Amino acid sequence: MNAISLTPEDLAVAALLILVDGALSLVLRLDLHRQILVAALRLVAQLLLIGYVLRVVFALGSPAVTLLIVVLMTLVAAREVAARSDRKFAGRGNFTIASIAVTAATGITVLLALATAIRPHPWWNPHYAIPLAGIVLGSVLNAASLSLDAMLDGVVRERAAIEAQLALGATYQEAIRPLIRNAARKGLIPIINQMSAAGIITLPGIMTGQILAGMDPMEAVKYQILLMFLLAGGSGLASVGMAFLAAGRLTDGRQRLRLDRLKA
Amino acid sequence: MRTESFLLLFFKKEALSSIYAFMTVPGSSDGARLRVSAPAGDRLAAVELALDAGKCLAITGPSGAGKSLLLRMIADLDLHEGEAWLDGRRRSAMKGPEWRSQVVYCAPESGWWHAVVGAHFGSHYPLTLAAQLGLAPGIFEREVRLCSTGERQRLALLRSLSRKPPVLLLDEPTGPLDPESVARVEAVLLEHLARGAAIVIVTHDPAQAARLGGEQLSMRGGRLSPA
């Protein structure tokens, strides 16, 4: 690979486009110039920081440090899922179930990739494990939060229908099944869209990056396909897992619908 | 109570409840179809109720007094302390759905989970009962959203009645109905009472309570008292 190395001057020129955005906002009174500036500064600061962290972690080559980073990333993603849903479980319920769903979905997918397709040496090599976990987490976060939101919204909206079934002697499982199905479906839609649009409507980011970095397009495509499959797997697990976990927390041993467990 | 504390010397509390499941508990052997015993909770005072087969209990009282809460508690739809018996069988010895399929709660706002009315009934529509309630056979093919509030109310009642549960908990079943429909519903309820069902009905109409010919209690601030 012969990547064309970027200099700070190159980035400075690209940053002019941010100034153009800011100027447009001022002229058209979009009132977004401050937000654009702050977002751009955050982007630079956050990415530089993670760049340095990754450099250090790669150099250390320690399994413990690699695991620590992956766990931190997972917890941040779980927190994000928990915070994004409109309705929430009381206490730390949202975070608890989000952590379980996000950790399981990401763990299974990433370990599968490391054990089969990619097979780095050692298998936990941070150079592979961390970026993989990162990209899978992005997808998992999206799927889990859509699914959780759909589930909690659904039970509140369909309360009368669910309780009417329970009151007639239906099991909780029977009454909640359509809602689980709906929530799981909601979480899977983005990745389906992404897969169908890839290559025609969008050139996926990973592939674009690798081609820009000098990789042969066919090699880049193979990587992109692998990653898309991983993302689809992670999304599916996260979305279905999240729906079941939320449904489980909304009932008790007497098979009631426990909406009192949601924050008022 | 004394027996219980005595037995507690030998058994853990969980073990006791499974022993109780196999024997008749003192107080429930008087042949009542439905018996309820619950300590005071957050919004309801302590409740002691017994209702024989074929009897109707009407509960009146202002909105927000806890009438629906009481019915939901008996149906085991809300978390609460206490116990209930159906023909002497402890509720805690049955699974939730098993209890609720026999002690059926009919909410004031009916819930629907299929688009078409008929899908909420089994393969055989209860056409005779529907006719008695003033519902034409064609209504089973209609979409739920196209039915009026009164029709939905009677359909929900039909849905519960057609399962012939031994106990019915009716939460303002005739609220949105015209006088003729009210009379039809009451006639059907009297028929079910005659067949041995026990009915607890929440109503705003003291006359209705009299027409159904049962005991009448009034609920105020979560507390039941003779009306």
Q: Can you describe this structure?
A:
- The complex is a heterodimer of chains A (264) and B (227).
- With 264 residues, chain A is an all-alpha fold.
- Chain A is built from nine helices and no strands.
- The longest helix of chain A has 33 residues, at 217-249.
- Chain A is globular and about 70 Å long.
- The termini of chain A are far apart.
- Chain B starts with a helix and ends with a strand.
- Chain B has helices at residues 2-8, 13-20, 67-74, 96-102, 127-132, 149-161, 179-194, 206-211, and strands at 34-38, 47-51, 56-60, 83-86, 89-90, 103-106, 167-171, 198-202, 215-220, 223-226.
- In chain B, strand 7, helix 7 (179-194) and strand 8 (198-202) form a beta-alpha-beta unit.
- Chain A binds chain B through residues 158-172, 175, 178, 252-258, 260, and chain B through 75-79, 95-98, 100-102, 104-107, 109-113, 156, 159-160, 163.
